[in-house]
Design brief:
Strand content of chain B: 5-15%
Distance between the termini of chain B: 8 Å
Order of helices and strands of chain A: EEEEHHHHHHEEE
Radius of gyration of chain B: 21 Å
CATH topology of the largest domain in chain B: Rossmann fold
Number of helices of chain B: 14
Largest sheet of chain B: 5 strands, parallel
Order of helices and strands of chain B: EEHHEEEHEHEHEHEHHEHHHHHH
Oligomer: heterodimer
CATH superfamily of the largest domain in chain B: HUPs
Strand order of the largest sheet of chain B: 8-7-6-9-10
Number of strands of chain A: 7
Largest sheet of chain A: 4 strands, antiparallel
Helix content of chain B: 40-55%
Number of domains of chain B: 2
Helix content of chain A: 25-40%
Chain lengths: ~180, ~375
Amino acid sequence: MDFTALPYSIGNKRYRLCPWSGNLLIKKSKKEEKSSKTSEKILKLRLLCDNPYALKTADNSLSYRFDKSKYLKRNADLLIYLCRHNFLLARKYAELKRHVFPNSVDAIRYFHSITNQEEASNLCLPRTLFCAQTSQAFKENGAIFIGVYLPSRSMHAWIIENGIQPDRRDNIWHQYRPIAAIG
Amino acid sequence: MRYEQPNLSFINARTSESLADIWGDLKGGYWKYSNFINHESNVLKGVRNRADYELVLPNLIPIETGQKWNIINHKLEEEIFTPELKNSGIKDFLIHSKNFFDKFSNKKIGVQLSGGVDSSIIIGLLRFFGISHTLIGYCTQRYEFRTELFIQNLLACNAKESILINYEDYLPYSGLENIPPHQHPDMTCCGFSSNQAMAAACFDASVDVLLTGCGGDLALGDTITTSKCNWIPAIFNYTWLQDIIYTPKGVHLLSFFSDPAILECIWNLRRGQQVDPEKLWARVFFRDFLPTELVDYTYKADFWGLYIDGLLSSIPEIHTIHKQAYELSGNPYFAEKNLNELLKIDLLNCDQQLYQRLEARISAAVWIKSLLAA
């Protein structure tokens, strides 16, 4: 999965995401920063982030019957652990594809079903990486976006896949300006 | 210049005497006995608990519109909304809405165009009844407001008259220096400049009544049990803003949802519903009056970014007013170290309590400064 920087500048401040640590980097600089090469897919999906009303509404019908497979749960737990300790490793681990779900809608539902909902807001990154790893549709039609809610340093990760934002419980993603994409 | 505040009166707690205003006491120096720690705790309690507020001025109980003094048990009471149980449908809602709009048949109606679902319902209804109206809203190019801006543009395009005020020119906490004297500290003053711009726009457009969607979060999103209702419609209307900013411009700022008949109808329609923060029920029920986007999607912009940017850019002004309040009153509450103590906390951390404490301090300093400088 490629990491695409989508740096954002306002005034003399440049906001970008460190691809290795996952930290928000804020630089004071008047120089224009070059954006990394952005694929067609990311450009298209980024446009949907910028125009949320252009997104399709998520279909609620379930296409996957959840099983209680222990390995899937262990997989999610490992991603949660890695995201807490090492952003790069978590990203790399998510590249080991396990296409269990047809799409991110089902993958996210499964993730929600096995994790503590009180912690859901802190699990946005492992949740999206889990989807990237387990959704069949992700590679062709999906990307993870990581955004910042300015002027705070609050960050959030979400997915756009198949023209939808697949997480029905995520009602904050549109507040965040994308500064990086993975996919 | 001093404004009348008809929506605010006082009760002398010792004598139960009703006072239409306390300008005389304030002029006599009664402000010196103010307890701003109580003001801070009142702000933290929130307006829904205003009947339990501690006194800021000893023995002087402020009574706002919608409150009354119970002379028997010496307690401040709220006029709580008590709906009558009845069957309601869209037809009833339309009748009540029409009756409400008819009250202003000889006046020019304006609607606060926020781009959200509450004000869009009002606009949809006015269009349905063919009632002429002007749209006036704050707009901003901030990323998080792109969904609101989309709806604002959509509705403004189809309106006969629409005015969009750039919010960035009137950020919260700006223009505090210009706040006129008032009788009691009120944290609503933090939105002084934007409301002043809104009132001026209404004045220029000859708008007499400006309808707002305030209270929509409660009416359309709160849990509705059949047993009890604790809504206070009076708090849907901001009395301080009305008296200090809108009345001098000849504008009546009025929440559509504060109308008792409309509120009762909504209450009956939603009876038994659980909390609905995304207003899913309203989006479906009012779908014929709303843009499709508001029916199919539930985006809602967060104002925190605007507030924090306003606060950050007004810090020098806040320091100045705080210093002036200290110099004029000598009250140790306004000692610089107390303000610095609050400001040294990371302001970019979205901690609501911190902002509320700051708002309490700012409104107290503004009050003292406005009184004494005048």
